[in-house]
Amino acid sequence: MGFGAVFGGGFRGLFAGTTLQTLVLQPGSAGFDTKIYAGDGTKNYGAATNIETGNWNAGNAGYHIRSLLRFDLAALPSGARVSSAILTMYCSSEANTTDRTIRAHRALTQWFEGVRDGVAPAGGEDGSTWLLRNANGSLGWAGGAGGASGSDWAVAATDSKSFTGTGGTLDFTVTADVVAWVAGTSNYGWWLLNDENATTTKQFASGDAATASQQPKLTIIYEV
Question: Which domain holds residue 38?
Fold first, then answer.
């Protein structure tokens, strides 16, 4: 799949011979994002216009929902040294207006976006669900259904943000993860996680959202 990239202008750094460039990745529907929902354990949401995280029903484990997203970094030139990376997500809806801390955790296992919106993947079709990391081949999550900390995502959050209300954005500082991926660590993107012990769900625009400016965005500043 093709990826859209917007290159900002370069400017001289603080040290002689240093040039900083800005790369903005906002690939839209060509990007990778999905959600997995305990209430529909066999269904894939790779084509949904939103991704969500939290719990829809007062801590009931059957309503947990988690989201994943990833950006292709192929547009970064070889040898680039990343100095900053910001993940921007637009919150489009919420289950309630209470402050919630949304956490971005580096993904440790490969997952599969899929092409469905609340429908089980067809036979032989890739797609992550709550029960399976990939429905094609019945590949399970490393930590069991829904994934698990330390197995499918890093124990420590790369960054976290507190958020109330809709119609605004969250900016996660994810520099450490992008630096690691550029250095050769496998890029599986992030899990977006939320408190799952109450009615907490926050909903974010996905790459399939109708408004392009609200789709997930990764802004990278790097040295050439």
Answer: 32-71+91-213
